[in-house]
Amino acid sequence: MKFTLGAMAAFALSTAAMASEVAPEAVEFTDDGVVASLTGTAGDPVAGAEAFKNRKDGNCLACHANSDMSGELFHGDVGPSLDGVASRWDEAQLRAIVTNSKKIFTDETIMPGFYSLDVGEHLAEAFVGKTILTAQQVEDVVAYLGTLKD
Ligand code: HEC
């Protein structure tokens, strides 16, 4: 009985969390970027740093150097260095870049859209209908990027 109640409570909690989340296809891009938070919950820069470097999540270091993470082994150079990136782009712009870089750069950018269902045809079937990062992970990564100022 206890187990059932616990499971129901957990279910109720997770549906409540989902309800405030913007679905990937409903994210609103404006000339200023993505102004509204995807979740309504402030991003956590520490969790964001984890998602940033984790190869199964953002894997941002595969393409970007970032001096703040000089302790990590591999830094790619396919994309620009992210040193001081928050001095070049504001929060709404950074949220737009991480959510769906195609909307900010060009359709040809090789940077994945991390909260987009339009991830590219070459992706494994496991990703069809899924986003690479969750909405909250995007907020966390954006909060982390916000700490990278000149
Ligand atoms: C497959 C390579 C690749 C990956 C992975 C990647 N990016 Fe990028 N990123 C790029 C490229 C390339 C650009 C430059 C824009 C362009 O030419 O398409 C870019 C540009 C950016 C910019 C703008 C930088 C500036 O100074 O103008 C930000 C911010 C950014 N990426 C953040 C991220 C974050 C955060 C992640 C991980 C969640 C990530 N990128 C993962 C390739 C990548």
Description:
The protein has 150 residues and is mostly helical. It has a single domain, classed as Cytochrome Bc1 Complex, Chain D, domain 2 (Orthogonal Bundle), CATH 1.10.760. It contains 5 helices and no strands. Helix 2 packs across helix 5 and helix 4 crosses helix 5. The chain is globular. It starts with a helix and ends in a 5-residue tail after the last helix. The mean pLDDT is 88. Heme C binds next to helix 3, helix 4 and helix 5.
Describe the secondary-structure layout.
Elements: H1 2-19, H2 45-53, H3 85-88, H4 91-99, H5 135-145
Bound molecules: heme C.
Please give a handful of descriptors for the protein shown.
150 residues; mainly alpha; Cytochrome Bc1 Complex, Chain D, domain 2; 5 helices; globular; binds heme C
Average pLDDT works out at 88
Got a strand count?
0
Radius of gyration: 16 Å
User: Which homologous superfamily in CATH is the superfamily?
Assistant: Cytochrome c-like domain
CATH classification class:
Mainly Alpha
Class from secondary-structure proportions: mainly alpha
Which runs of at least 5 residues are low in confidence (pLDDT < 50)?
none
Order of helices and strands: HHHHH
What binds here, in terms of ligands, is: heme C
Strand-residue fraction? Answer: under 5%
CATH architecture: Orthogonal Bundle
At CATH level 3, the topology is Cytochrome Bc1 Complex, Chain D, domain 2
Number of helices: 5
Q: Separation of termini? A: 56 Å
Largest sheet: none
Number of domains: 1
Gross morphology? globular
Helical content class: 25-40%
